[in-house]
Amino acid sequence: ALLRRADAVGGRRLGRDERGALARAVYEQVLRGCRYMAAVHSRLSEFVAWKCAHPVGDAALAESAAGGTSEAINGYERALRHNLSAAECGALVEMLSMLDSLRSALRRAEGRAEALLRHSIHEQTQAFVHGALGPTTRKAVKHDKPLKKALLGLRGLAADFPSREARAEGMDEAVLKSKEFKAGDHAHDFPPRAAPPAMTQLWLLRSAVRALSDDRSLFAQKSSLLAEPDLSREVAKEMRSFYVQSAHFEPLLQLSATVEALSDVSFLWTREFYLELCDVVQFPTSMSLPWVLTEHVLRQRNTPLMPLLLAPLGVYNCCADAALRQHKQQHLYAEIEGELALVFEQVLFTLSEQVFAHCKTRASLMLLDPARLGGIAAADDGAAQALGRNWYAPLLAERTLVLLGRPIDLAAQLTVRMGAMLRSSVDIAISRFESKELLAVVELQAALRACRLTHVLLREGLPDLDEFEEVLAEANEAVGFLSFSSRILDKATRDAIDDLLPNCAYRQDAVLFDRPPPTAFTPPPERDKAPRSTPPHLLFGTSPLNAEYAMLAAAAGTGFGPRHAEALLEVLGEAGMQALSRALSEHLAALLPHSLSSYVLALQEALPAEIKQPSHVYGAAGCLGYYEAKLLDLRGYEELHSGVLHTFRRLGNGVALVRLLEAALGTRSTFALGQLPVEGGQPPLVAAATAVAAAWGQQAADSDMVLMAEQLAGVCAPARSSASLLLPLLARLSAELAPL
Prior knowledge:
This protein has helices at residues 2-9, 16-53, 58-64, 75-79, 86-107, 112-132, 134-142, 147-158, 164-171, 173-177, 179-183, 199-213, 233-245, 249-253, 255-262, 272-278, 289-300, 314-326, 330-367, 370-379, 381-387, 393-396, 410-434, 441-461, 468-475, 487-503, 543-555, 562-606, 619-630, 632-635, 640-673, 684-695, 704-716, 726-737; strands spanning 401-403, 406-408, 505-507, 512-514. By secondary structure, the protein is mostly helical. The radius of gyration is 44 Å and the shape is elongated.
């Protein structure tokens, strides 16, 4: 807030006291920040030095080496990789993040705020020379003490005056001896400006002050038992205080170099001593301390440590700068660049997978019954983390990451990977549907719902992510111009015609299709193979959630019923449902002239010309024997079951399936129509366009926007609740039967 105030002041002229107070406050804040940075930097260096001096022992190494032998572990791993606990790794990451935050904050002090910093240093120096040393200088000049020459030298070296004449007057011994000088207030004898002493001036000034105020100085000691020293205790104390305070002037005047030096943590990567000790060219990336810390954060997943993930990567910036500017070794920079490329690629891969898994798990939990969430979270750590706060959000908003001087838009990188993973998730859901029966449409519905909600959660942090409809159309292979087909539609049509109609039996009492025992003339259709290995995060987030949704899909029943018809309508949409109904209608209409008519003719030929009703005196057995004898040729017809009855079953199943789909479509249309305005009312889209046109001073009849809104409202209107899929089918079948 103080730096923002300094920036807001800018070049505006302030009063002397107001500007001095603001400059003093900026000075104190910047000094405090530098002290914090120095404390963090020193603790980091001390911690690493202590760890290197006390490597892990064999007993502790046997537990942390993950099964490796202690002989195969070199000294560098003993010192750092296996010598750090989880708490120590977290503390190191937090300290690196704190150091980076302080560096960013102090960077803001450069510019206009730095002018206030120089102004404060100038005021402190002049207040000491004019105010603290003024009376002592007058006393030394008046009594011609040996201290006079040293104090006048200090005054001439560091004192600032408003003009050349004022300087000559301020250095005149006669003026210094006068009563006016003694009675005057010299707190503002210098001009208020940002003109601190130069480095040479500052060094000479501090050396002289240190020499004069030292306890062994002749001017600070008594010349006799009753005499007072030339420098009183109060003045000597003020000189010592200024000497300590002025030690901060040089670092603050070179603020950029100071901040860079305090933020240099290249010692966390440099390991030349261990390279010589182990006699190797270079250590693998897995042993590097920055990667060890980054890997620790990634293993914690959605925890408060996750926003600090990028802090260890700043170590590589310091190492690269030291390699070029201090060591002047190009090959060392190349090694750092290569390792950083590997680390950053692994970070992107792992982070994108974790973010997607978090959003997919969260979306899957939001779709479940709230009563089940407690039990799932207790048994699944991933689900429990997904229910909490999203600690990945700060990383998704990161757009100013700088590595080795190259700006990187982390959000853009994650957007590309999230889009690819979302496409893979949708593609796997459709592939699993293609490899199963039509009953799997319930699982496909749940998977697409989870993907859609995952997309919504991802768009909160990555607004540049592609629209979900585009992702779904691309995975569904429905991106062509005026495309009337898709993978889901082809699969539903193929399974309905080749499996559901010929191989299932419709039960009117349960309103579903059951699968009877297979016969020789009802072979199961061939289907695509299911994806071999599917990562859990590409389905519903975690393995327990995948099992939970599998049980929900199995609970929907083993027969195709209204629940499956509603799911099929949702994944196909009204346009896809119309296409499916049209394909069923064409298939059933083709059965009449090609298959059914020939069977009917064959049946007519097989029936006897005349069948009389037998008398009741023959009894039930006699009547049955009479009909069996008359229909003996019909019973011997080879295709009676595999052809005639099977074709009639396909025809009846087709009509029942269309009726089932019509019921699902009617329910959805009724729900959609209930959300529309009353009949005769103006659609909301047209009303909004009319209001905009009126605001622009246009009539509704003359506005192209209103015309487009009316057309769009008509195109997007849902099917009427009275619309029927069955009536057109029956009309077409009647038309096919008429010539026969």
